[in-house]
Structure formats: C-alpha cells, structure tokens
Design goal:
Blueprint (H helix, E strand, L loop, with lengths): L1 E2 L2 E2 L10 H11 L4 H9 L5 E2 L5 E7 L3 H15 L5 E7 L2 E7 L8 H10 L1
Antiparallel strand pairs: 1-2, 3-4, 4-6, 5-6
Length: about 120
C-alpha cells in the first residue's frame, strides 16, 4: 500500500503461541465419560442426562424474581458460546440444561460453562 509515495506496511500479523493453540485443541475433543464423572463430582447439582450428550442442574429460589434473574444471568453467560443452553423457569425453580454437539458430546468447554453458571 502506498501513501504519497511512501510504502506503508499493512496490519501486523499476530502469531499464536503454541500453548494457546494446544489449549484450543483440548476444548474441541470430547471428554471421556470417566473425565465427565470426575468433573461433575466437583460441580454441585450438575448431573449427566441419561442417554444424552447433556448435563443438567435444577436450582430452587425462594422468590420467582430471583429465579428469573438467574435465568437471565445464565443466558448472558452462555451467549456466543457453542454449547446449546435450554432453560425452564417455573415459579422459583430454574432447570438449566447444557447440550453438547452431537459430533463432540460433552466437552471441556461445556463443563467450563457449567462451572461458571454455578
């Protein structure tokens, strides 16, 4: 690119560090069922949905408004991420289900999202 007879370099290319590339790869692979059980044991209330590639948690709140606020929080946290989020709100109860993709199942990213949701 030239500007008034001078050469101007284009945008700088950012190189990824090998460890960043490796981290990205680890999130994409399916997590083995043993690893899923181990991670879920450290996530109070989260359970694998039988015959599915999903995990679920039901939370009870004393006030329906608190339940609605938590549901809104869950939607905001999950926005733009690959795991599909399903929420059911009934009175003071919120059921959150995180669905893994059929080709990947339950991934590290899905379990990380469950950790953030509490």
């Amino acid at each position: 690119m030239k500007t008034q007879g001078k050469n101007v370099a284009g945008p700088a290319v950012e190189r990824l560090k090998p460890e960043r590339v490796q981290e990205e790869l680890t999130f994409r692979r399916p997590v083995r069922s043993r690893e899923v059980r181990e991670r879920l044991s450290g996530l109070p209330g989260w359970k694998a949905v039988s015959r599915s590639r999903s995990i679920r948690k039901v939370r009870k709140f004393a006030d329906p408004q608190d339940a609605a606020a938590y549901a809104a929080f869950a939607v905001q946290v999950a926005a733009g991420r690959s795991p599909a989020l399903q929420i059911a709100v009934s009175g003071g109860q919120v059921a959150v289900t995180l669905h893994g993709r059929p080709d990947r199942g339950i991934t590290g990213a899905l379990l990380d999202l469950a950790t953030e949701l509490g």
